[in-house]
Write a structure and sequence with these properties.
With 417 residues, the chain is an alpha+beta fold. The chain is built from eight helices and 18 strands.
Length: 417
């Protein structure tokens, strides 16, 4: 038989009599309804209204009328649907999955929604057994955060939020509030089924329910500057419509970010003379660049300063790229692997009669960071002539021998026999 619409008029006498019997508690009952049940009825007002989608046989037993409060409409529906408690369709249509309620998801019989509605119906059905105490705390929610790597990887930071429920019963209508640092913006949330809103740096994630003994992992991807090497505080808190007597574990703070690694090398430079002397106006020597690591050095520049009396003649090997500006020469190497060295052979010209020892300097730098700069420069003295030393030495030796010979001959001539 089709349920008669607009039961408010048909059952007004019955309703008024019942309300009169509960007059002492009616204000408390309506307050309980407005606090614990009405906030969960947003979707009810979409379909269960006159001429709405639920205004058909099977759904019109519960309609919200515009000229009455939701509390009054809820009471009228309870009366039309036969009163009672656990067998009333106000409860069963929302708690029994087999009845296939097409509106909001079902209320498990352990849920706060079910228990609140059952409490109200009990107060209507059995006033002497009425208790307005809300359902006891039944969920122990906790939240934690862990980093996938938790570090800035090319401007991306990845980490996870885990929400758990230690029970003893299912938690419903969870909200996870997540605060990002000011240097960070949200990129993605996974799984994609997680509903969320974002306002500035505050993200609110929503879960319909979380069964006891289970957890939900939410993977977060955020962006920051590629050069941001600071570790930053990320905070998360969880709440639910279900009571939670243990709030000590409902908030978590973790540090993510940083971890940017830069390659470094320990470059050194030295100079040695092939002979390092002026040979008919030519001075030859070598510059050696070495890398002690720990990483390869890239884009090396070796700056070499010649004395004023010297000009560059040749560089070997010929594959070495360089530029020359006056007495300053800059050699270029693309890279130098850790544990290796590279020598540059240099030939210079000077005046053939230039016998001066002169200072030659070289320094090395690279695009790769070098934390030890103490060995990045070298100075050596080249020039002079080994020939003059031997000529003078041989001359003195010849004179000494000649003097010795003449002295011996004089002694022999003057000797008396």
């Amino acid at each position: 038989m089709k349920i008669i619409k607009y039961p408010i008029y048909i059952f007004s006498i019955s309703a008024n009599l019942t309300m009169t019997a509960l007059a002492a508690d009616s204000a408390d009952l309506e307050s309980f309804f407005n606090t614990n049940i009405k906030p969960q009825m947003q979707l009810c007002g979409v379909c269960h209204v006159p001429n709405g989608l639920a205004d058909v046989e099977g759904g019109d037993g519960f309609l919200l009328y515009p000229d009455r409060s939701h509390y009054e409409s809820f009471y009228d529906a309870w009366v039309v649907l036969g009163k009672g408690v656990t067998n009333n369709r106000l409860l069963t249509m929302n708690s029994d999955p087999a009845l296939n309620h097409t509106g909001l998801q079902n209320w498990p019989t352990t849920s706060a929604n079910y228990k609140n509605a059952k409490t109200l119906l009990t107060c209507w059905d059995q006033p002497t057994a009425c208790t307005l105490a809300p359902p006891p705390d039944s969920a122990d929610l906790s939240v934690s955060m862990t980093g996938n790597t938790g570090q800035n990887n090319g401007g991306v930071i990845r980490y996870s939020i885990t929400v758990a429920n230690a029970g003893p019963t299912t938690a419903h209508s969870l909200e996870i509030t997540h605060q990002l640092p000011t240097q960070v913006t949200l990129n993605a949330v996974a799984p994609s089924s997680i509903a969320y809103t974002s306002t500035g740096g505050e993200i609110t994630l929503y879960l319909d329910s979380l069964a006891t003994g289970t957890s939900q992992v939410i993977n977060m991807t955020v962006n920051t500057a590629t050069t941001n090497n600071s570790t930053m505080n990320f905070t998360t808190s969880v709440s639910a419509i279900t009571g939670d007597a243990n709030l000590a574990n409902n908030t978590s703070t973790a540090k993510f970010g940083g971890g940017i690694t830069t390659n470094s090398a320990d470059l050194s430079v030295s100079m040695t003379g092939n002979n390092g002397k002026n040979q008919n106006g030519v001075i030859s020597y070598s510059i050696t660049v070495a890398n002690a690591g720990p990483n390869s050095a890239n884009s090396l520049e070796i700056t070499h300063q010649l004395p004023a009396q010297v000009t560059l003649t040749a560089v070997a090997p010929s594959s070495i790229a360089y530029t020359s500006d006056g007495g300053e020469i800059i050699f270029y190497l693309d890279s130098l692997a850790t544990g290796t060295s590279r020598s540059i052979n240099i030939t210079t010209n000077t005046a053939t009669n230039n016998k001066t020892k002169m200072d030659f300097t070289a320094s090395v730098s690279a695009a790769t960071e070098d934390k030890n700069l103490a060995n990045n420069s070298s100075t050596a003295r080249f020039g002079g002539s080994v020939g003059w030393f031997f000529i003078v030495f041989l001359g003195l030796l010849f004179l000494a021998r000649t003097f010795k010979k003449e002295a011996a001959e004089a002694f022999y001539i003057t000797r008396v026999y």
